[in-house]
């Protein structure tokens, strides 16, 4: 059984990913590899200010990292674990849609 602090970190990660806007941003980064704010906004149909606010949270949690190139910051998923988590979660939703009766 994981330690209490590990459980809290896992719960915080799922809470962070529970927001549809942040999750759309993560899947956009998963598909594209690396994008900057205006590309993320266009790809997800979200305002740049909303994207920036979401990226601050995702960066602070270590899910997303940024690379500065002049005035632009290019964002990407922080590591392979995040990619795996997104892929496995999406695969799980395809196999276990939430609207079916579990019995």
Automatic annotation (TrEMBL):
Pfam families: HTH_5. It comes from the Bacteria. Residues 2-97 form the HTH arsR-type domain. Keywords: DNA-binding, Transcription, Transcription regulation. PROSITE patterns: HTH_ARSR_2. SMART domains: HTH_ARSR. GO terms for molecular function: DNA binding; DNA-binding transcription factor activity. This is Metalloregulator ArsR/SmtB family transcription factor. The lineage of its organism: Bacteria, Bacillati, Actinomycetota, Actinomycetes, Propionibacteriales.
């Amino acid at each position: 059984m994981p330690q209490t602090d590990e459980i809290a970190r896992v719960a915080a990660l799922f809470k962070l990913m529970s927001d549809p806007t942040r999750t759309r941003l993560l899947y956009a980064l998963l598909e594209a590899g690396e994008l900057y704010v205006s590309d993320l906004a266009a790809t997800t149909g979200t305002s740049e200010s909303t994207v920036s606010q979401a990226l601050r949270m995702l960066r602070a949690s270590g899910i997303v990292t940024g690379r500065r190139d002049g005035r632009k910051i290019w964002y990407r998923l922080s590591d392979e674990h995040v990619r795996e988590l997104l892929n496995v979660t999406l695969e799980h939703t395809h196999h276990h849609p939430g609207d079916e009766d579990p019995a």
